[in-house]
Write a structure and sequence with these properties.
The protein is built from 21 helices and 3 strands. With 489 residues, the chain is mainly α.
Length: 489
Amino acid sequence: MNGLVNVMEKYMLPVATKVGSQRHLNAIMNAFLAILPITMLGSIITLINVVIRDFPNVILQVLGKEQTYDVSKVPVLADIVNIDGIVWGGTLMIIGLVFAFSWGYHLAKSYKNADPFSGGLVSIASFFSMLTLSVSVDLGVIPKAALKAVQKAVSAGTLNLAVDGKGAATASAWAVNPSDLNANAYLAIMLFCGIAVTLYVKLAQTNLKIKLPELVPPNVSKPFEEIIPIGIAVYGISIVFYLLNNKWLGIGPIQIFAKYIAEPFANVTQSLAAVVIVTAFVHIFWFFGIHGTNTLGGVLDGIWQQPLLNNQEIYNKVGLEKFHYYAAHPAEAKAAGYEITNWVRNSFDIYGWQTGTGATLCLLVAILIFSKRADYRAIAKLGSVPGLFNINEPVMFGLPLVLNVVYIIPFVLTPIVGVVIGYLATAAHFVNPACIVTSWTTPPILNAFLATGFDPKAALLAAVILLIQFLIYIPFVISANKLDYEKEA
């Protein structure tokens, strides 16, 4: 066993340390953590709307009732749904914009001699520079009766109208596509805004600044010092956007990223192999006392958080029943313009490491039933209640599981078994994909039920996985008893 620990310390610990200290992964993780209140607010109001708008119809269907429930006819609840829609417009609908500032802020903060707030401004400005700010519609040949109304709108300044020699008209207006402001923009923001912020940081570390006399207060002189670095960074990345959109590929940065990078990359990250590898590394890092979910937070959130929010947006648009139908009929969903993703960020929580990394509540129950060690049983009693809410630090460092070779196999194996079962069940459309962001402290089984839009089969699957994970731990708990007795003898 000591040999195994030595090998892992020699080869795995350096990798874990490098990943945990990587600047950009840390900045991504911190950026997502910083916007968590906005993300959770949007998710909570979504959950509220599901409960009062959609869930009653599910109950009626289960009871075999023919009548339907229409929340718009219930005065107070209808107002709540409408207000929640407004809150959603200020949270998840623009979550890409919120993330852009947070990403720029934390990336700049990771460097010396760079102002984090200015980094956020550079990222925001770069983000808007990559947006397509106009929408055009081909109107065809406009009848004379309708032409007057169109011309009136043009004169009011809300539309631009172009008419060709044959009388065919094209109307255009200044507008932003809402889908460019949400989680769809995450990957483009990480790349292009990250480049702009990095350029700003490098310039801010030089003397390329406007220097005002020392008598000028810092709150006045500081913005002037930032003008040149910010200006060059934003203008420079805007030139790239212009060339991409107008000279080279003919589409905007967000669309370029989605077409040439995000879609192929998504195919790889939706593979079972990718899910298993990430799950394994999260727990291997934890074995060495490195917080695996935090260390790989940039990977987990950067890759799988966007499709989760996309699923949630589809859920908001089509409602509970339609989402369930589309989830089971992906071809029809795609034909309707909806891309539902099977494996998303919440999937790890509800199937892999429910009750905490390593599904440690299963270990605690196994210890309480099968362990003969008083110290193990004491830790199990203390850690069981926090474990119900996925808090397992008392077990990780109290048992401990860190550098505990006896339990490394089940500690890594149980979450892998969980994600494999959850992945296959979701891919086979036995359960709905996760579509609602839930808090990581939501108790197991309930978390699966809520995250999948009240899918009882998901809750049942989570319970079955917990039972299997519990059974995996049993022989290792019994083996630990034997090893301890041999040591005492």
